[in-house]
Amino acid sequence: MTATGFTDGGLDAYLRAEQGGFALDSALQADRGQVVAVLGPNAAGKSTALRVLAGLQPLTDGWVRLAGRTLEDPQTGVRVPAQHRRTGLVPQDSLLFPHLSVLDQVAFGPRHQGLTRARSRARAAVWLRRTGLDRLASRRPAELSGGQARRVAITRALAAEPRMLLLDEPLAALDVRAVVELRTFLHHHLRDHDGVTVLVTHDPVDAMVLADHLVVLDRGTVVQTGTPAAVARQPRSAHIAALVGLNMVRGRASGTTLHVADAEPAIRVITASPHEGEAFCTFAPTAVSLHPQRPVASPRNVWRGTVSGLTPHGDAVRVALDGRLPLLADVTPAAVAELGLRPGVEVWASVKATEVHVYAA
Amino acid sequence: MSPPGRRRLRPRSAHGATGAPPWQLVLPALVALSLLVLPVIGLLSRAPWSTLPERLADPAVLDTLRLSLLTATTATGCCLLLGTPLAWLLARADIPGRRVVRALVLVPLVLPPVVGGVALLTAFGRQGVVGQWLDSLFGVRLPFTTVGVVLAQTFVALPFLVLAVEGALRSADSRYDDLAATFGASRWQTFLRVTLPLALPGVASGAVLAWARALGEFGATITFAGSYPGTTRTMPLAVYTALNSDFDAAILLSLVLLVVSVGVLVLLRERWTTGVAA
């Protein structure tokens, strides 16, 4: 993580602000084109962080610097109002202007950057084509599904061509199918966004899939930072272990087989549904079974590993495995005893293909 | 959008859970209803139906009606132009002494209209605080003119509009305003393109209230603007004048006023409620 990138488009912020019963106290940095996810449980201070970055709530201390410009610094009395920050906010419940069509919705940002009505609509039309929403252009927000509304809100923010895109729980409160589609949508369009993106979420999967860097918040303070892989592999508290309680692999998929990235010799993961190209796959620790020998009536995914740690996890025991594919497995205490699991013991891990979810990278 | 089942549930639960409505409530409610309806029935039953067509054709009646509609509508326009910004200041801006300002806005509501007319004379009359300057500097005299009628009507109708719009602005979600700001909209642009459209139903009902109040205005008008046929004698004043000479004419004018105001209200209501739903 570099803190120097803010001069050429990046974000360098240290946020201190009041929020409810506690103080937000968090550093936040991102290079241009990077996605930072602020991850944490409810009331961790995530939304406050976004409001502060957008200029809707003042800092009590700290600073916000974006693209070489100081947006806020209480020490020197600098505070650029929200209107002049060039941020693109996607609020938690989309907040589409109820009286505007989808086209005018998306034209709202361009229109207030000084474009004429016709030009701003033209730009909005381009963005709607880019995000595949052009057939909805004349609809009103009341005529959209939850998932569509969220996409329109994201497109509206992107069309403002912001230096900093701010997403507040973009995948919350949608049905499962809509979440899967929207995650792919977000992944695609966040990758193309060349400004900074700050994504606030309570869902570790969203953070893992979408972000280059994680900042884990709890009660206003930073608990852990790092790349998604690093945070997922080595949670530094039971809380984060629960938050990121997933096994995740990135690689290249072909049909129902995913070849794990940078693995030599190759490691293959058989997935539930077919996919082509760069992909992520995830499976829960509860989906991993452990065996003393290579299982005969084999589930399709079998790997060897060495127990590196055992921690109680609810009613189960979470077993960390080292090996070519580091894994977390949840097993019963009885299984721990039966298999004689302790650090250093070699076991076979298996995962049913139906438990492995795959989606585009 | 409520499911039909829920609509059917409501009366059933009212009876099932709490029994029949108590007579202590039903009786006064019936009295209230008859108090409201009986005068209208009286008006209709005493109307000179046989001579109605020829009386209606009287150009004086139409002129009076035209003057009433013109002044009430202009006054409503003034209320919208001046009252909406005032309501915004009260609802959204951090202004010192907001409570005092709101109390001042309410004064014309509780002031007897005749007193309002006297007050207007002391302010805008030829010897009034502002009026003498208007007269000497611009040669503008407001009392006993049609403009004076509009001024009197605006004075009494403005609080209705301000209260309705302020209420609408308060209940509107101010997060939309915040969001507009992040997209680069100034506060004025936000007001025009976000705040106002969202508060439009409230503004519309405030305008209807103000219009109805202006159309029925009597006390302040007759005190400040007098009752000159063609320039300041609006329908309510004409009704009052006719009472002394020709009772049938008074009833006729009352009927016209009744039909026009109820008709316009119903029309606008239909239009706005369907407009909001679409």
Tell me the layout of helices and strands.
The complex is a heterodimer of chains A (361) and B (278).
Chain A: E1 11-19, E2 22-30, E3 35-39, H1 46-54, E4 61-66, E5 69-73, E6 78-79, E7 87-90, H2 102-111, H3 117-130, H4 146-159, E8 164-168, H5 176-192, E9 196-201, H6 204-210, E10 213-218, E11 221-226, H7 228-233, H8 238-243, E12 247-260, E13 268-283, E14 288-291, E15 301-313, E16 316-322, E17 327-331, H9 333-339, E18 346-351, E19 357-360
Helix pairs in contact in A: 2-3, 2-4, 3-4, 4-5
Chain B: H1 4-18, H2 23-45, H3 52-56, H4 59-92, H5 98-110, H6 113-124, H7 131-138, H8 146-171, H9 175-182, H10 187-215, H11 219-224, H12 235-245, H13 247-277
Helix pairs in contact in B: 4-8, 4-10, 5-8, 8-10, 9-10, 10-13, 12-13
Short description:
Chain A has about 350 residues and is α+β, with helices and mostly antiparallel strands. In chain A, about 25% of the residues lie in helices and about 35% in strands.
